[in-house]
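hiii, so i know i said id send this last week but things got crazy w the move. better late than never?? heres the sequnce for the chain we talked about at the cafe, plus the structure i predicted for it. fair warning i was half asleep when i ran it
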Amino acid sequence: MNTKKRSDCPISSSLDIWGDKWSLLIIRDLMFANECTYGDFLKSEEKIATNILAARLVLLEENGIILKLSHPESKAKVLYKLTQKGIDLLPLMIEINLWADKYLAIPADRKEMLKEVKKDKEAFIKSMIKKLMK
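okay and structure toks below
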């Protein structure tokens, strides 16, 4: 499915796919918290409503950002994983975190991660990509 574009602007077109807060939080959980089931997403502190979660998961899957896989331990559960297209959002997510660190109060565990990022951003990104591709 191709999401309807508001314009040909690359920022606008990208935002049409992942630009709402819920989609970015799902991507965040898949990247940084290794959250990967529907139930895991529902447990996040932002308290996403089930109808919104279901809609965003469909949108992200239809746009090739995530994959839906069978759960190895339960036929009733589904695993969600980032595709290469989703993993390629990592540098953007890192930059959002760095911006937040500069201007907002952020949790200690995120500050720890950003310490590593600031030492060598490229090495951190390479390491994370390797981990996410497993």
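btw The chain is about 60% helix and 5% strand. thought thatd interest u
miss u guys!!
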